[in-house]
Amino acid sequence: MFDFTRIPVELYRNIFQYASQNELVSLSQASRTFQKEAEDILYYHVDLQKTHKNRRLAMTWCTAVVKNEQRARCVNALKFPSTFKTPLTEDFSFDIQAAIARAFNAIVNLKHLWLLGVGEKYTASLHPATLKDCTFSLLSLGGQTSSFGPEDMWEFLSRHPHLEYWAPTVPLLNAISSIPTHVVLSLRRVVLVDPSKVLSLANRPINYMCLVFVAPVLNLRAGLDAIISLRPISDTLHTLSITHGPLQNWSTLDLLLSLGSSSPHLKSLAFSTFGNVHEVIQKWNRQKIVDAISCFYRLETLVLATPTAAVRDFNEASYGQENIKNWKETSLNPDECREVASLVIQSSKTLVRITLPFESITGTVRSLTYSRSTTDPSEAKFEGFHIISTTGWWMR
To answer: Which of 206, 260, 270, 211 lies closest to 238 in space, CA to CA?
Structure first.
């Protein structure tokens, strides 16, 4: 049997980082030395979001960090249930609130907090008073804060001047006309489910933004208002994701042209859709794509709208790479998609990768991804049937 004691203590953490959560728990019970190194990893990123139905597990964790200062200081990122399932015959007692407050007071090094909620029949686990005396300084905040009114949220945010990532919830955004100028001044990454609030984020150094148009139909006026509102942050904004439902009286390409005017410095631009959206690039629109792309000076990655659900059920093997014969005559076939990708790459000196949709004869929308060829920079090289991933910074 290998003698672990022969390994320098300094290397334990490098080895333990490859262990699973259950293995880390076992290691923490093996010896005092193992315990410290294992718990440093085990408590660094804590995920309690599934404890909303069994708050005893969450209370056990709260007690553990309160009783052990070393564990509490390890916590850097926390996913905590914003609600707990409470029987109708049971009160959500003051003792439980006090226990949660003590735990949050103990995790002084917390930097990233996500609050996950699940419904109106659940009882809120966090209130403004719960976090009132906390001394941690957040860099990221997202999730449900249903018990926080606008003034409560502004007061909380003012105590976290270094916040860089924020995903405000729909109830909060619906309750306000704008975001105050004295909060989130260091904001660099934001997810907005109410794009009408974009303008109130002016003068923040925003680099990454996701705009989610939750309305069943996105009309021209609402879309243009949001795009025009991007101008005050266009110098810093380099990554933009837009999610929308069916478009009314305009198309994704119209969106693209408008963005080229308001945010020409983008490096990454992605469109995704929800609902019954079957928008495809029509044959007569290829020049419109080229015209739109030429407005961007730094664009490296472009993902045009493709319904995610249509991609999940795609069987690549049944189509045999690009030998696809079943496409609608009104939309681009794979060969024409490559031609469009090549045209776009030729019109842009900076573009490296592009995802284009096409619609099969069965009505299913598929995705084709191309990259700039290394042998001939003016040609697009087929990568595969997938969408370029641009969501890693905000899909947490």
So the answer is: 206
